């Protein structure tokens, strides 16, 4: 049976999560919630607006103000997915070792665009950043290659590492500098 | 590409095009079949229906509205339900509107949509849901990820 376009959208969203995480189940019930929706079946355009929330349980959550999905011309495949206004993509991935708590990574931006031709998600905006327990990476533009699971920040980039990373490293541990002979009296 | 719409109510039937039919009192067990090129595209039915005329077109305020749609291959596609809505019929298509609830289920159970307040223009193939939209998709997932 042919997939419906909403399912193709969610398949892509699920694929985005899978790029980060081994699968937890063979199928997932993935809700999309919004204040308003328009489905243009002739054009194949699906438009969700107002408090849009997409949840693929255990894999990822996407929230934004507006979500637009468009198919490729003359085919039934998803061409682009555009999320705008306060875009947050939250991705869960497994910890480094079995039994570790899952690691949550959040990407923030004003606009996220997925294009099927190159399978790339481009996140842009004034305060575009990726936050995970190791720190924050900021950039004017963050490009995520879905196929190769790589993040690229082509322009100005600032990385802020969490101090927690160095808590036990001794890297910033300072000696007491106490004089060998004790303090003068 | 003619579309045939036949409206049948208990003890009451319309011949010819619905728009030319007289407006009568409320009917029960309202139903009609939407056919196109000899194939059934939709089976509509409801409970009590009050007919009226809107801009020269026949309209029904239908309670317990239910429709089953079918693809060109005759296979079931979708089921839609609303506790109360207005169906406006033209010679070639129909529009269904309501400020109330809508529930749409794909026949294979992999898609379910609910919301409040909707406008479904069958001719334009456009559905707008105005409030509290919730779409649940059953997403097939592969067994292994691609983690590098």
How do the helices and strands line up, and which of them pair or pack?
The complex is a heterodimer of chains A (185) and B (148).
Chain A lengths: L4 H14 L8 E8 L1 E5 L4 E12 L3 E12 L6 E16 L9 E13 L4 E5 L4 E4 L2 E5 L1 E5 L4 E3 L4 E5 L24
Antiparallel strand pairs in A: 1-3, 2-3, 3-4, 4-5, 5-6, 6-7, 6-8, 7-10, 8-9, 9-12, 10-11
Chain B lengths: L2 E7 L2 E2 L17 E6 L2 E7 L3 E6 L2 E14 L5 E14 L4 E13 L4 E11 L4 E15 L8
Task: Explain the overall architecture.
The complex is a heterodimer of chains A (185) and B (148). With 185 residues, chain A is mainly beta. Chain A has one domain: Sandwich (lipopolysaccharide transport protein A fold). Chain A is built from one helix and twelve strands. In chain A, strands 1, 2, 3, 4, 5, 6, 7, 8, 9, 10, 11 and 12 form a twelve-stranded antiparallel sheet that branches. In chain A, strand 4 and strand 5 form a beta hairpin. The longest helix of chain A is centred in the N-terminal third of the chain and has 14 residues. The radius of gyration of chain A is 21 Å and the shape is elongated. About 10% of the residues of chain A have low confidence. Chain B is mainly beta and 148 residues long. Chain B has one domain: lipopolysaccharide transport protein A fold (Sandwich). Chain B is built from no helices and ten strands. Chain B is globular. Chain B starts with a strand and ends in an 8-residue tail after the last strand. The N terminus and C terminus of chain B are likely disordered. Classes of the chains: A mainly beta (185), B mainly beta (148). Chains A and B meet through helix 1, strand 1 and strand 2 of A and strand 9 and strand 10 of B. Strand 2 of chain A pairs antiparallel with strand 10 of chain B.
